[in-house]
Specification:
It contains seven helices and two strands. It has about 240 residues and is an all-alpha fold. It has one domain. The relative contact order is 0.13. It is found in: Cell membrane; Membrane.
């Protein structure tokens, strides 16, 4: 059903945008060309957005793009510094801000007919979650040392070490599925609404449900990007501040 709807919405007749079950086998790895192309498009849009907002920097009279960029940067940077302090949080601000902007563009890309959100592919969200796992252990070792980081798993009050390890494994899994589930569900419903409602019905207001859900999906896209970044900050600050 979803595949048929997406074929109808594929105005540009690009096969890679509709064959979402098609994978390329490269050195034993399954690669989705659709997700890969959408990721490249999202990255290009992020670079274009950053360039457009910062190409005419002016301290005395900042433009609207510069103001928007600075507001987003200060907002996410404030979240990092509030949880980790300036000394430990400053190096992480740019990483979290990049996460935030990139995930927003990835989430919103699927709202355009014929395109798809890279975050509607669980491989993308798991990749993002694995980056977070790396950052968690990197900062934990950086601030607590290897010995202190290992000791964290064998503290006296953590009697059930296996359960604690399961908790650590569950962090990236829940982060990946939370982002993937929300974005994929939004894409499916929008595609179904657009596919089920005939064009003639739009003259009588049948477009209203699609518009409402589209607006809600935009809101969800921003919220899910924020939630992913806040979980990243929380997990890193927890491990980095465990032994100091």
């Amino acid at each position: 059903m979803l595949h048929h709807v997406e074929e109808q919405l594929n105005f540009w007749n690009i096969p890679l945008f509709t064959d979402y079950d098609k994978y390329w086998q490269v050195f034993g790895l399954s690669i989705s060309p659709r997700t890969m192309i959408m990721t490249w498009i999202a990255m290009a849009l992020v670079l274009l957005f950053a360039w457009a907002c910062t190409r005419k920097l002016d301290v005395r009279k900042p433009g609207k793009g510069q103001v928007l960029y600075e507001l987003l940067y200060d907002f996410m940077g404030g979240q990092v510094l509030a949880n980790m302090g300036h000394k430990r949080g400053a190096p992480l601000v740019n990483i979290v801000f990049t996460f935030f902007i990139t995930i927003i563009f990835m989430n919103l890309l699927g709202l355009i007919p014929s395109l798809a959100s890279p975050t509607a592919d669980k491989n993308t969200t798991f990749g993002l979650a694995l980056i977070v796992v790396f950052l968690i252990h990197f900062y934990a070792i950086k601030y607590n040392g290897i010995g202190g980081h290992i000791k964290h798993y064998f503290q006296p009050y953590k009697v059930f070490v296996i359960l604690h390890l399961v908790e650590e494994i569950a962090k990236p899994v829940t982060m990946a599925f939370r982002l993937y589930g929300n974005i994929f569900a939004g894409e499916v419903l929008i595609a179904v609404l657009l596919g089920l409602i005939p064009a003639s019905a739009y003259l009588f207001g049948a477009f209203i449900p699609s518009v409402i859900w589209l607006g809600f999906s935009v809101f969800v896209g921003f919220v899910q990007a924020f939630v992913f970044c806040m979980l990243t900050i929380a997990y890193i600050s927890q491990m980095a501040a465990e032994h100091h």
